[in-house]
Amino acid sequence: MRTEIISIGSELLLGQIANTDARYLSQELAKIGIDVFYHTVIGDNRVRFLEALQIASKRSDMVITTGGLGPTMDDITKDVIAEFLKLEMVLHEESLDKIQKYFNSMNRTMDDINIKQAIFPKGATILPNEKGTAPGAIVSKDNITYLILPGPPHELIHMFENYALDYLKEYSNEVIHSRVIKIYGMGESTVESNIRDILLTQNNPTIAPLATGGEMSLRITAKTDKNSDPIELIAPVEKEILNRLGDVVYGYDDDTLEGVLMSELIKLDKTISIAESCTGGLIANLLTNIPGSSRAFKEGLITYSNEAKVKYLNVSQDTLRQWGAVSRQTAHEMIDGLLKATGTDMGIAVTGIAGPDGGTLEKPVGLVYIAVGLGSNVQVNEFHFTGDRLKIKQATSKAALNMARRMLASFY
Amino acid sequence: MRTEIISIGSELLLGQIANTDARYLSQELAKIGIDVFYHTVIGDNRVRFLEALQIASKRSDMVITTGGLGPTMDDITKDVIAEFLKLEMVLHEESLDKIQKYFNSMNRTMDDINIKQAIFPKGATILPNEKGTAPGAIVSKDNITYLILPGPPHELIHMFENYALDYLKEYSNEVIHSRVIKIYGMGESTVESNIRDILLTQNNPTIAPLATGGEMSLRITAKTDKNSDPIELIAPVEKEILNRLGDVVYGYDDDTLEGVLMSELIKLDKTISIAESCTGGLIANLLTNIPGSSRAFKEGLITYSNEAKVKYLNVSQDTLRQWGAVSRQTAHEMIDGLLKATGTDMGIAVTGIAGPDGGTLEKPVGLVYIAVGLGSNVQVNEFHFTGDRLKIKQATSKAALNMARRMLASFY
Q: Across the interface, which of A13, A210, A294 has its CB nearest the CB of B36?
């Protein structure tokens, strides 16, 4: 099954957004053994879209379009596909009804232009959009399947998972399964030299290393026919990699450092509080992104100013004067004060210089102290991060979450 | 000048990475008036790449390739372009020398396979790669220019800025300028009905609406020849749109709600503190992403638990008992307590139900109260947001930042 993804939108050709829809679909289609051979991006232009459909219909068995389903004049996807396939456009009453209800639920009035979103090429199977007003559709003609999906990623993902996936699985004879090993605290080349022999000899499963955002991952992908289980091919390779890498492996697949820490805290029935200076709320934000986090997360104190460090965390004026706000001593007093003030089992305190201003020769931008406490056990580490303000905030947060994860693991 | 970007790499078709190269190039080419009409992605496959070059050579005047310049067998870009253009491949001694030196500088030995990276189609102009081992190239034949660039984004960006850009500017007789109007608090279809006549009659500048992440933007793009100023075409249209939309317009181009609020606070020499329940630190995190925010941002209190609301914000137990933590009354007491406890000029307090658990019939997931205070002026609004936990946190943060922005604007 040769599949082509055609994304329609001038915003893609102007570089306003990256084509994350094509990436997502490619990833999901790979999992069910459907090969994507082409991505094509064109603007909101009827003639060029018709030409792209002409090309795709000669080289592909399935064409997936993303975007161009909105209510405005620019949104031409369904019209052009109908023109290309010589199909009439007809109103789908049920969709109109749903769009109407969607507007009602948001306490808004439906504009006339939204009626367009309920009109489809005749004979299309409609895919409901539960996250927006643009339903998708499937049309087949001359042995080619056209899957029409909306552009906004959250709408596309929900529709694909809930309405398109089962339909597509029927087209595939293979199963592909991937398992991602998530690694923090070991660089790409070190990971690679540790497992080079495995990387060189494997072809099913394959192993793809990827470094992003200060973390590393290894994607192990196995392919079998529909009657076998690719997980059986993955398991022994995964086990060997874990043996080699040890506890820099913090999780799998969609796991995050904050998610792993939070679920451990909830499992152990422990509470946590955070005192943040340079990260300005990022660590608390990450932890409270996890559903159910209110069971473990109690308080966050963003003590940006020195006064706040004194007032809430009882950091002494002497320490601030003698060692400065960004110092091992201040970090230590912050964690002590935090655990005392909040009474939680665990605490994280950070102080550092995120830049771009505020750095000196002795204390440059990127200098960060992270303190983690669990009961009476306290650990303070010094870090030197590089990059811009956001990079330093992110790197600090990951290092802090990882210190907390490891401390928790070493005691329980 | 019709330009097509062809990105070569199976990792793109497997969805392992998004095509950020095509995005970057599109953005940069738009700035110098070169129109990108197509993005094409294909795998590391000779036949399909030849076919893609065939298609591109019929519809485009310039073809930019990204990727496939590495030393391995998979890297076929230069070979296939030479085959397509019927050009010999020849060694470029100067590049070989540089690759050798690059390896020396990293204290590594050059492998024989890297020699391949110094071989190019005959007649090519070589573009040095100062960030890696794969030089790029420019080849022209039959009135079509082929610009060959490496895949890794930092190599591509450096080469483009330093070696390709000046070359490309000569191809353009036009200048394109874009101005983005950023809008919060008015839906896509309402914005569009307000300016429909402008949208219908304009073709230079063009106006492209885009809705993302609960916000709207209008990109006004004007094109002139090199001797005129496109800004002169944009200004009157921009002015008319501002007149129609009023103060839902919060900024321009890369402006964000948090950036606009923060720079107003700094300009007015006012301080701010935040008390967050359901957003769990996100508002503070956004505000402290802004460089220089420590001048205005003083304290953030993430009062996730009821005890924290009482302890830090002096919310009364009675209020919590009678009205609940998620109520107009609690939000009001939170903002009063926050301003009193922190002594800052301005405050934002939020309480709500981010879900997925914790909702009831009377207080469903997505119910949020936002209180904003400036001196003795306090405003409390009720919101009903939809979506998952992260969406509700984001929507709440944007609404809160916007309320603060508008309150500040109404007093100063």
A: A13
Please name each of the domains of chain A with its CATH number.
Answer: 2-169 (3.40.980.10), 174-252 (3.30.70.2860), 257-411 (3.90.950.20)
Asked if A28's CB is within 8 angstroms of B13's CB, the reply is: no
What pTM did the predictor assign?
0.79
- Using DSSP's 3-state secondary structure scheme, residue B210 falls into strand
Half-sphere exposure of A405 (CA within 13 A, CB side): 24
ipTM over 0.90: no
Record the tokens describing residue B54, joined without a space.
Answer: 């065939």
Give chain B positions within 8 Å (CB) of A72.
Answer: 188-189, 192, 209
Rounded to the nearest angstrom, the minimum Cα separation between B7 and chain A is 9
Do A302 and B303 lie within an 8 Å CB cutoff? no
pLDDT tens, chain A, 412 aa long: 899 999 999 999 999 899 999 999 999 998 888 989 999 999 999 999 999 999 999 999 999 999 999 988 889 999 999 999 999 999 999 999 999 988 887 777 888 888 999 999 999 999 999 888 899 999 999 999 999 999 999 999 999 999 999 889 887 778 888 899 999 998 777 888 899 899 888 889 988 877 777 888 898 989 898 888 999 999 999 999 999 999 999 999 989 999 999 999 999 999 999 999 999 999 999 999 999 999 999 999 999 899 999 999 999 999 999 999 999 999 999 999 999 999 999 999 999 999 999 899 999 999 999 999 999 999 999 999 988 999 999 999 999 999 999 999 998 8
Q: Which amino acid appears at position A187 of this protein? A: G
CA dist A404 and A345 (Å) reads 12
Which of B 283-342 lie inside 8 A of A, CB atoms? 283-285, 287-289, 291-294, 297-305, 307-308, 312
8 Å CB contact of B389 and A283: no
* CA dist., res. B400 & res. B93, Å (int): 61
Nearest alpha carbon to residue A300 among A332, A264, A346, A331:
A346
Which tokens sit at B165? Answer: 């850009």
| Separation in Å, CA of B41 to nearest CA in chain A | 5
Q: Which residues of B touch A54 (CB under 8 A)?
A: none
The alpha carbon dihedral of A356, A357, A363, A368 has a sign of negative
Residue B324 Cα, gap to closest chain A Cα (Å):
16
